[in-house]
Design brief:
The chain is an alpha/beta fold and about 270 residues long. It has one domain (about 10-270): Rossmann fold (3-Layer(aba) Sandwich), CATH 3.40.50.720. The chain contains ten helices and eight strands. Helix 4 packs parallel to helix 5 and helix 4 crosses helix 10. The chain starts with a helix and ends in a 34-residue tail after the last strand.
């Protein structure tokens, strides 16, 4: 692929970076990233990946834009309320960069469809908002051997880790199964600072770009946590768990299944 004059101008701030250059930008334009979830995390990730010139961006989400989404899901606007999230996201990505090919999947990621959806992508961004979906993304990426970025946010706290399946710590190495019903509230129950999604989702996009370019140090084997109230980032080193039910020495999980979604009553959730 040879960059056009217009592309050289568009991506000039990338191209002058020694670690990117014209070759790196061409690599981005030929890369494919899938975003699971067009919500708080997926929204900033999608915008920045499109602006960066990632050539093909897939986005999967079964929901429609709701008024409560607009406090943090910056890819959606007031006029998009009632519109499919994937359609709303596609319009904004195409508007910011016509170079980008957007593939939309207006469906819920499930055990019987996710492997087919993610197959062929170079990197996956987990922008889901519930534990069963996060385990599903982790397991599907493991079976398809596709690198991905996990992230989660709640109230004022966020966390993320990058996983190279079969090589580094996976999500199940850290969290063995979805928590019980009385353990963790959802964002709709406990709230979330809107801008927190922008910070963490942008970090996920950063990890994707670094992986695609083969530069820098990825958050592999490292859980990065962030607290917006104290403005503190913390890195926690995590080793692969030899007893992991998915990637351990004696794996017990050999096929995908949909975990049960358990939502706690807020008054019973541990705070």
């Amino acid at each position: 692929m040879e960059l056009t004059e217009q592309q050289i101008q568009r991506y000039s701030r990338h191209i002058i970076l020694e670690q990117v250059g014209g070759t790196g930008q061409e690599k981005l334009l030929s890369s494919k990233v899938l975003i699971v979830g067009a919500g708080g995390l997926g929204a900033p990730a999608a915008l920045y990946l499109a602006a960066a010139g990632v050539g093909t961006i897939g986005i999967i989400d079964a929901d429609k834009v709701d008024l409560t989404n607009l406090q943090r899901q910056i890819i959606h606007h007031t006029g998009d309320v009632g519109v499919e999230k994937v359609a709303s996201a596609e319009a904004k990505m195409r508007a910011i960069n016509p170079d980008v090919k957007v593939k939309t999947y207006h469906q819920r990621a499930k055990a019987d469809n996710i492997r087919e959806v993610i197959r062929g992508y170079d990197f996956v961004i987990d922008g889901t908002d519930n534990f069963p979906a996060k385990f599903l993304v982790n397991d599907a990426c493991y079976f398809e051997k596709i690198a991905f970025s996990h992230a989660g946010i709640l109230r004022f706290d966020g966390q993320l880790i990058t996983v190279l399946p079969g090589q580094t710590t996976c999500y199940r190495c850290i969290f063995h199964a979805p928590p019980p019903a009385d353990a963790v509230p959802s964002c709709s129950q406990a709230g979330v600072l809107g801008v927190l999604a922008g910070v963490v989702g942008s970090l996920q996009a950063t990890e994707a770009i670094k992986y695609l370019l083969g530069i820098g140090d990825l958050l592999t084997g490292t859980l990065l946590t962030y607290n917006a109230l104290t403005m503190e980032f913390r890195k926690v080193r995590l080793k692969r768990n030899p007893e992991c039910r998915l990637c351990g020495e004696n794996p017990q999980i050999t096929e995908l299944k949909d975990e049960e979604q358990i939502v706690c009553d807020l008054k019973d959730c541990k705070r």
